[in-house]
Amino acid sequence: MSRNILVSALILGVFGFIGATLVAVTEFGTHERILENERQALLHQLYEIVPKEEVDNDILAHPLTVSARDALGQESSVIYVGEKANELSAMVFEATVPDGYSGPIRLLVGVDRNGVLLGTRVIAHKETPGLGDKIEKEKSDWILGFTGKSLTDPKLDRWKVKKDGGEFDQFTGATVTPRAVVNGVKRVLLYFDQQKDALYKEYLDKAKTNP
Amino acid sequence: MSTSYREIVNNGLWTNNQALVALLGLCPLLATSNTAINGLGLGLATTLVLVLSNTTVSLIRNLVRPEVRLPVFVLIIASFVTAVELSMNAWFHDLYKILGIFIPLIVTNCAIIGRAEAFASKNTVPKAALDGLMMGIGFAAVLFTLGATRELIGQGTLFSGAHLMFGEIARGWTVEIENYKGVLLAILPPGAFLGLGSLIAVKNWIDKSRKERVRKDIVVPGDEEAAAT
What angle do helix axes B110-118 and B125-155 make, rounded to 10 degrees? Predict the structure, then answer.
């Protein structure tokens, strides 16, 4: 009887070992490719926002991690800094808008050195398909409307959807979603305006200490 | 009383279709069938796991004691699913990101452990492998059909996102109905239930009319004889 249990346990153990080996071998074989995929996917996303010719550094090399819950909506946000000819040319912020219609909306917001929006993309959201999901670039051009805007164009009190007396379109049947995104982008611009010098200095320090 | 190869094919694709008849694996089926390509992606991943797990289970069927067979099957399935998940992440990264949690959840698809226990553990390797392939294709076909229907009714396109699976050349494969507003319901979860229900109804209707035709074929010669006399 106890022999039987031992044999069974041994069989289970052997298969556990074989299974773990299979997974380990696959992991070993795919690890670098997966990392490279993720890097490429991120780069692709960033270059959709920041024109390639505006950046001549490795924009992924020294990302900053900041904690600015009020401005960027998350406990810790990553900021990618783009340089051209050793001067700041662009920053891309990860930001979360907490007040979407069905939960938080995650954004990437790219700003050039003068505080003009290079572009915005929604990277994750749970808005209603067919209504609120028009914030995706694949679904409509709405999100492209931010490109070229800044805190002076339109003026700060016009950074609202049209329904609230602002500059930006809302969607038929969905106002909450675009309102939230407009507010979120505005907060990022304000944050950039206050913090850009400090952020760029932090980037330079980081780049100097581990090139 | 072993099953013939022809029966295995018939069972997998039609008579005992895992999605339409056994109603197994409904969670991933309903969740990922919002476009044809998503459906196909998960269907193919499931098929791959089914073939691998059925083959392995059949290979070791005389080695494993009955009291530990289920944990061993689960171990085998979980290892294969993880391997498939990692490979998809490496080679079909964008599709992997869309299917997300449903790839690892293939482990919990009852169809897979069901085939391992009910068929592979009692049959030879070639039969078990064929069973896995046919059950997988049957499942994938339903996922694909449901996905294509929901995509077409819901957003008026077909094969959107084909490049995620077939590379850049497939970018132009998307078919789009011009000026079609779309029916939101088809994309939302209730659309999956309605669609699956309709597919099951169609299958039952085909089975029924086929059975009636067979019955008529038998009856008709008898009638002719009766008329002749």
Answer: 160
Alpha carbons A98 and A105: distance in angstroms, whole number: 6
b/e B176-186 (16+ beta carbons within 10 angstroms → b)? eeeeeebbeeb
Task: Pull the structure tokens for residue A5.
Answer: 């249990």
Tell me which range, A58-62, A117-121, B223-227, is most confidently predicted by mean pLDDT. Answer: A117-121
- Beta strands B175-176 and A64-66 are unpaired
Measured distance CA(A191)–CA(A144) in Å, rounded:
21
Chain B partners of A13 at a C-beta cutoff of 8 Å?
Answer: none
Decide if the complex's ipTM is over 0.85: no
Please name the residue that has the structure tokens 């689960």. B74
Amino acid in the structure at residue A63? P
Structure token digits, residue A86? 């050793």
Q: Which residue, among B29, B57, B61, has the nearest Cα to B43 in the 3D structure?
A: B29
Give me the residues of chain B with pLDDT under 70, please: 1, 218-229
Which residue type does B63 have? L
CB contact under 8 A, B75 and A16: yes
Q: Which residues contact B95 (CB under 8 A, 6 or more apart)?
A: B37, B38, B41, B88, B161, B164, B165
Distance (Å) from the alpha carbon of A119 to chain B's nearest alpha carbon: 22
Closest CA to A193 of A81, A100, A116: A116
Q: What is the SS3 assignment for B12?
A: helix
Contact A12 B68 (CB under 8 A): yes
How far is residue A114's CA from residue B194's CA, in Å, rounded to a whole number? 53
What pLDDT digit, counting tens, does each position of B58-87 carry?
999 998 888 889 999 999 999 999 999 999
Q: Do A34 and B93 touch (CB under 8 A)?
A: yes
State which H helix or E strand residue B228 sits in: helix B189-228
Q: Which helix (H) or strand (E) covers residue B148, if one does?
A: helix B125-155
Whole-prediction pTM: 0.78
